[in-house]
Amino acid sequence: MAVGDLSLDTTTRQFRLAEAPLALIPRENAVLEYLILKAGRTVTKSALSGSIFGLGAETDPSAIEIYVHRSRKKIDGAAVEIAILRGLG
């Protein structure tokens, strides 16, 4: 799967950015994997959190923001971006 120059090998679950391997920690990988699967659609924070931490898991609400922020920094300058829609997702 690919969005812009960010691609996901669905067999290995590894990301590449402009054909170079993208170094991600497991939670950042989970964030990008969920978002690439939902590309073009608004994703709520609760849906993303449920996907990453599991449904019903007790997590700090700011944790998902931290992982999204870190993921955004790692793809900065690429032909793809994670847009934040305040109040929506």
UniProtKB/TrEMBL annotation:
PROSITE patterns the record matches: OMPR_PHOB
Domain of life: Bacteria
DNA-binding region: 1-89
SUPFAM superfamilies: C-terminal effector domain of the bipartite response regulators
A biological process term (GO) from this entry: regulation of DNA-templated transcription
UniProt cross-references to InterPro entries, sorted A to Z: OmpR/PhoB-type_DNA-bd, Sig_transdc_resp-reg_C-effctor, WH-like_DNA-bd_sf
Record keywords: DNA-binding
Positions of the OmpR/PhoB-type domain: 1-89
Pfam families: Trans_reg_C
GO terms, molecular function: DNA binding
Protein name, per record: OmpR/PhoB-type domain-containing protein
